[in-house]
Structures are given as structure tokens and as C-alpha cells.
Amino acid sequence: MQHCWERKLLIEIAQLNGANADVSTLTKLPYLNAVCCETLRIYPVGMLTFPRRVEKPVKLCGWNLEPGTLLYGSIYLTHQREDLYPEPKKFKPERFLERQFSPYEFLPFGGGVRRCIGAAFALLEMKVALVKILSEYSLLLVGNDEVELKRRGERDGACISYKYGSYR
Q: Where do the annotations place heme binding (predicted)?
């Protein structure tokens, strides 16, 4: 069974004329970009932003925070906000065609001065790999199991990955 998003993406990829596609062409494909952004929204590589240290006493959302307290933003939870992303668990690339999200709403590579320096390269890599795979293979979803995530990283919290690997 082919998903609607997959059909749309294959049509866009077919217009590339195979070998004539170059890097600059890939960056201009709107639906490919939307699919990659939606993937990064649902499964961001980084789970948390870099910490910020409270400088002076402050009250935030009803909490009294003392100097020295570390604050982390949750990229994963931001991307799951129903007010920003209706039906957040659903894979809907069209949401990235319908509106432009602010850097505070969509931040798969972090934000500000600490934004991942390799963000553009990582997104390009993702697009090249996806186009290559879909151009040469037909993919089939074997099961409809929900993907379980686990925290991983130096302190089991910075990054997320599939609990059982990318395949079983």
C-alpha cells in the first residue's frame, strides 16, 4: 500500500529526469523539503536544546527559579504541541507547505547562535538519500507498529533513537 505522501513525492522526484538532478535542484523541491521537515518534526535527532542558566531570581510559568538553575527546552515536546501542529502524531508533510514555522516552533537543529552548524548539510544528505532510495526501490511497510523511542547520549537524554533499531 502506497501512502498519499509517497505518491506525491515520487511524482516530484520523477520530474528530476534522473541523472540530470544536481544538488541545487534538490534544494528547490517543495514536497521533498516538506517530507524531510515533517520527519524531523516527529523524530528530531536532538531531544533538548542546550541549557540556559538562570542569572537572577525569576518567576516563570508559576515556578520560582533561583540563579544557577539550568533550563532546557524540549525540541520533541515543542514539535508535539497540538496548537502548532494539529494531530501531531500524524505524518502530514503538507503542514510545511501551508505555513512557515518560526525558529521557536520548528527547531530540529536547535536555534540561535547554538544552532547545529551542519544543519544545511544534514538536510541535504537526507534529501539526497531519500531521492536515491525512492528512485531505485519500492518500500513496503511490514507492520503498523508504533515506533518506540528511547533516549540516548552521553547522559541518556540529549538524543533520541528507535528503541529497537531502524529495523527488526
A: 116
Asked if residue 167 is part of any domain, the answer here is no
Cα–Cα distance measured from residue 154 to residue 18, given in angstroms and rounded to the nearest whole number: 41
Binding-site sequence positions: 116
The binding site for heme consists of: 116
Instruction: In whole angstroms, give the CA distance from residue 22 to residue 9.
Output: 17
pTM to 2 decimals? 0.82
Q: What pLDDT digit, counting tens, does each position of 9-52 carry?
A: 999 998 887 656 678 888 889 999 999 999 999 988 888 888 88
Q: For residues 124 and 26, is the Cβ–Cβ distance under 8 A?
A: yes
Query: What is the total count of domains within the chain?
Result: 1
User: What's the domain range around 50?
Assistant: 4-162
Contact 87, 25 (CB under 8 A): no
